[in-house]
Design a protein that fits this description.
The protein has about 200 residues and is an alpha/beta fold. About 40% of the residues lie in helices and about 20% in strands. The strands form 2 sheets. The protein has a 5-stranded parallel β-sheet, with helices on both faces.
């Protein structure tokens, strides 16, 4: 049985997404580092936009399934596209649903509190999605997720990949450091060493 379970997902719903390619590489590195990785696609959950009235009528089954995945993992690998200087609506909506309290919760924010996230972005812009990662870091910090200080940005993503392979030297060199840090911190948090 693996020591650490990581949930890996991209904030992009697009088939052939550069962020999905980046996430796939990071997931492979995490498995090599000894983590158990569950890779999901947000497009498979068909989440409604978060609405407190809808929540009061009955928590959507797809949101419940997604939230249970968040709760059941020790940390996250998140590839976040930059939409208008922030995170995608799909990513923010998934986080909003997963953060909602449910009957029987052992404490506040069980999907996020005391967990670690590694964040990365691929963008056709020269900044590599930096503004989106800054927004994501703020969102995750607000819901008590420890975000690794390392982050990976892939600028000019349309020429940074050769098929599934990341060919841009700088992010390719930085990605293992980010993934190893997430695995290390997830183990530390799980065993109580970081408390």
């Amino acid at each position: 049985m693996s020591e650490v379970k990581l949930l890996a997902f991209s904030g992009s719903l697009r088939v052939g997404s550069y962020n999905q390619r980046l996430l796939n590489i990071a997931s492979g590195l995490a498995r090599d580092a000894g983590a158990e990785v569950t890779a999901i696609a947000l497009r498979d959950f068909h989440l409604p936009l978060y609405d407190a009235d809808l929540e009061a009528e009955g928590f959507p089954e797809t949101a419940e399934r997604l939230r249970n995945l968040f709760v059941g993992h020790d940390g996250f690998l998140i590839a976040s596209p930059e939409f208008n200087g922030s995170v995608s609506g799909a990513l923010k909506n998934a986080i909003d649903w997963a953060s909602r309290p449910r009957p029987g919760d052992p404490g506040p924010l069980p999907a996020f509190r005391g967990k670690v996230a590694g964040i990365m972005s691929a963008s056709i812009s020269s900044s590599g999605g930096l503004r989106g990662l800054l927004a994501l870091r703020q969102i995750l910090g607000t819901i008590q997720t420890l975000v690794a200080t390392e982050q990976v940005m892939v600028p000019f993503a349309e020429r940074a990949f050769d098929g599934a392979e990341l060919t841009d030297r700088m992010p390719r060199q930085m990605l293992p450091g980010l993934v190893n840090r997430v695995v290390f911190l997830a183990k530390a948090l799980k065993t109580g060493l970081a408390n």
